[in-house]
Amino acid sequence: MKALITGITGFAGSHLAEHLLAHQMEVSGTVRKTSSIKHIAHLLPAVRLYECELTNEANVEKMIADVKPDMIFHLAAQSFVPKSWESPLETIYNNIAGQIHLLEAVRKAGINCKLLLACSSEEYGQVETQDIPIKETTPLRPLNPYAVSKITQNYLGYQYFRSYGMHIVCMRTFNHTGPRRGEQFVTSNFARQIVEIERGLKPPILYVGNLEAKRDFTDVRDVVRAYRLAIEKCEPGEVYNIASGSSRAIGEMLQTLVSLSSSTISIQEDPARLRPADVPELIGDYSKFHHRTGWRPEIPFEQTMQDLLSYWRAE
Ligand code: GDD
């Protein structure tokens, strides 16, 4: 089976490439001119890379015609929430144009290809207490342009399924982390600051934003396993939550990381890290996906935090 991963050089993409190779799949992926291939260098030449800008329609058509994948995991996106306030149009344009080009290229190529769309728990946004844990039927009340872009990706998937009968599955993935997480995201940002303090590269003050928000964290390695199962077993046209089913305040996550270090660290709020709006609490109900595939998360949170710190200590 030929799998194509958009965003293969990124965090989830690189873990997914490893996972699919271990399951005897042929793996290709798209890279941009500006992408670093650091996270997948160890997988070359087993993985085939295609230089392709998803916002360039001709590039995408050529790439799909060349690769003729049996399945596509569409992960490439502008995925950092604060950046979507700084440049809303860029986020909306990148995430939506890229996906439309991909869907159109597959449709025009007339190939028999399953697609998985990486959507987000951010689509739920402002969730009322009675809606927790969040099911796929919970109303969508987005709080940032990124969330709107993901809702659009999600509904485009539904529309292409209905209009053309394409095999498209949407995952609403809750927060995920682990080794190789980008340093702008909270878990990696804090882990990296801890390691810089341990190395004496910065004073023992760790800067934070909103510590009250609660997030449902799953290990990235459990998430990529879910993606493979989803493309194999899930119903096209449907949306599935991928989550752990419990949440932690960001402050609690920070305490877990700090407890794994022997350095003495003080915490200081940095107003620049606060957001115009922050989703207060996300807890996902993953029972729909569990009933379909048998998946449940396996890696304990403390292990993920330990592995994340080890990753930064080895950098
Ligand atoms: N990034 C960051 N940096 N976040 C901070 C900080 C900080 O210094 N301090 C507190 N936070 C809080 C944020 O306000 C937010 O409530 C939470 O930590 C998580 O922030 P991020 O790690 O940036 O992730 P996110 O929840 O905004 O979005 C992530 O998860 C989504 C799924 O729910 C991203 O991975 C999205 O792409 C993904 O769709």
Count of helical regions: 10
Q: What is the first-to-last residue Cα distance?
A: 34 Å
Bound molecules: guanosine-5'-diphosphate-alpha-D-mannose
Structural class: alpha/beta
> Which H/E pattern describes the elements?
EHEEHEHHEHEEHEEEHEEHEHH
Stretches where pLDDT falls below 50 for ≥5 residues?
Answer: none
Backbone CA Rg:
19 Å
On the 0 to 100 scale, the average pLDDT is 97
Q: Strand order across the biggest sheet?
A: 3-2-1-4-5-6-11
Share of helical residues: 40-55%
Largest sheet composition: 7 strands, parallel
Approximate strand percentage: 15-25%
Shape descriptor = globular
Tally of extended strands? 13
Which properties best describe this structure?
about 325 residues; alpha/beta; seven-stranded parallel β-sheet; two-stranded parallel ribbon; about 40% helix; about 15% strand; globular; binds guanosine-5'-diphosphate-alpha-D-mannose
Topology readout:
Layout (H helix, E strand, L loop, with lengths): L1 E5 L4 H12 L3 E6 L15 E5 L5 H11 L3 E4 L6 H6 L1 H22 L4 E7 L24 H20 L3 E6 L2 E2 L8 H13 L6 E4 L5 E2 L2 E2 H14 L5 E4 L5 E2 H10 L6 E4 L17 H7 L7 H14 L1
Parallel strand pairs: 1-2, 1-4, 2-3, 4-5, 5-6, 6-11, 7-10, 8-13
Antiparallel strand pairs: 9-12
How would you concisely characterize the structure shown here?
The chain has helices spanning 11-22, 57-67, 81-86, 88-109, 145-164, 186-198, 220-233, 250-259, 287-293, 301-314; strands at residues 2-6, 26-31, 47-51, 71-74, 114-120, 168-173, 176-177, 205-208, 214-215, 218-219, 239-242, 248-249, 266-269. The protein is α/β, with parallel strands linked by helices and 315 residues long.
